[in-house]
Amino acid sequence: MSDIGKIIRVNALPPVGERETNVIYQVAAPGAATYTDYAIDANGDLKTHAVVEGSIPVELSDDHVSISDLDLLAEGIATQAEFNSDTRQKLDLKLEIPSVEGNSQYFPKIIGLDDNGNIAKLPAGDLGKNMMNADLTNTSARNHTLNAPFSISTLGNEYKISGLPNKNTDVANFQKVMVQNSAGVNAIVDNKNLLIGTPQQMTEAERTAWKTAMNGGWSTNTMSVAFITPPVIDKQDRNSWITLRGANLNLNPATFSVEIMANDGVTSLAIIPNSQVQLYSNGLDLTFYYNFKNLPLGKYKIRLWNGIAYYVTPVTVEVVAVLDVINLNNLVWETKLFTPNTPDVVTVAGGSMSYNASTANKTFARENIVVAALKSSEFVSAGQNFIMSGTLRLRDDALSLMNIILGVINKNNTLALTNNANFQISINANNIANNTKTIFGDNLFSMWTSNDSQVITNWSIARNNGLFTVLIKYGSSINMSTRIGIDEALSLVCYINNTANNDNTGADAGFNIQSAYRF
Predict the structure, then answer these.
(1) Which of 50, 164, 290, 470 is the most exposed place for a label (fewest CB within 10 A)?
(2) Cα-flanking dihedrals φ and ψ of residue 210, to 5°?
(3) Burial class (CB in 10 A: 0-12, 13-18, 19+), 86
(4) Which of 403, 459, 469, 399 is nearest to 434 (CA)?
(5) Which of 35-49, 115-129, 152-166, 193-207 has the highest mean pLDDT?
(6) What is residue 69's predicted lDDT score, i.e. its pLDDT?
(7) 294 domain-assigned
(8) Whole-structure pTM over 0.85, yes or no?
(9) Which residue, of 268, 294, 322, is where some domain finishes?
(10) Are both 399 and 270 inside the same structural domain?
(11) Residues 484 and 340 reside in one and the same domain
């Protein structure tokens, strides 16, 4: 081992060629009273590793002592030069602190580190940009500001935002909605502007469907009324039935109203209680009853409200002091029986008729055969408007085909045991095992009765400028039909079918005309 002798204090370690051998240089630390020892052996080798700026020509000097560390020797590093060479190779793999600005075009890689300390190059373009592949969670409030346009294309995939606060109880402060134009640009508008502008974007059919849906599925199309029947009411203390015929009259039961208006169509005189109004799903008819006794003589219009808009009828109903009554006592009746001149079968006088089934006229049977027919003399001239109302009655038991039909007929038609009525009301036994019967109005609509042997229904027939209205009322149910009819002079006609009389209690029927007048 080298014998190192004297100690030399210097301010800086001399260069390699100028150092003494077997000495220790103590190099003073600048500005401090401390020293660093550097041992030089007999060969001039530095025993202590030194890297001192300016003391050697390179940062790592090869002129150092031989390597004696067993781990380094195992790696094949036996000299300082070999150690330095290995160190330089490792240093070449280190990154310098960047001092210039760059971009991903010229610097497309960054360094990644795994959990074990291993490193790898990663594409710079995928990091910090493709945030959609990351599950992001913030732990404090964050703000993002766009200084340029920004877009997200879902390519048809589901895109949703969940967990937003519910502000149904604070709509006064939340009146903005997000909308999008045809280019896909999102924006916000006031919700009222959106609602007001929506109908302008719809077709007429879509607007109609939208209005109907907003009105609970009921019509919001423009209402119209072409006829009011009867158009004339006498000023009496009784309820009078009024029928409107038009279009889009299927009003919402929850929101509609019917009012009596002055002839100016502006002044409301009376509101009809909804319980006195009958609505029909066909949208063509509306019926109500009202006592006109407190209204002055004159003409009145009807105003309807469908939940969306008002409509005032252009046609009127007139309240008069006295009606042009048809004198039913002047009617002359012709009777035809299955067995002519059978006594005690038909009794008729004026506007009333009574029929009693008799085996003398026809043997009782379950058969659809007319056994009695009646026709009156002319009760209204050609083209003359009229309205007539009354009751119709049938008593019969189960499993029978008996019926009674009352209607009108051209006065020139011949009476026969065949139903030739043009407009009619009827009560029909149903040929079933109970007493339930069916009431028909003009054969266009029907209603079932309760399980009673005797059924009485109210009816009304009117002609108004060629338009016939037939109405039937049973209990709280009302049905009505309106259609174009004959314009000739008319007679009344009645037909009665045979009874089975299964309970041996007999069967009977009849009608009673309570009012009839011209207008």
Answers:
(1) 164
(2) -65, -45
(3) middle
(4) 399
(5) 152-166
(6) 63
(7) yes
(8) no
(9) 322
(10) no
(11) yes
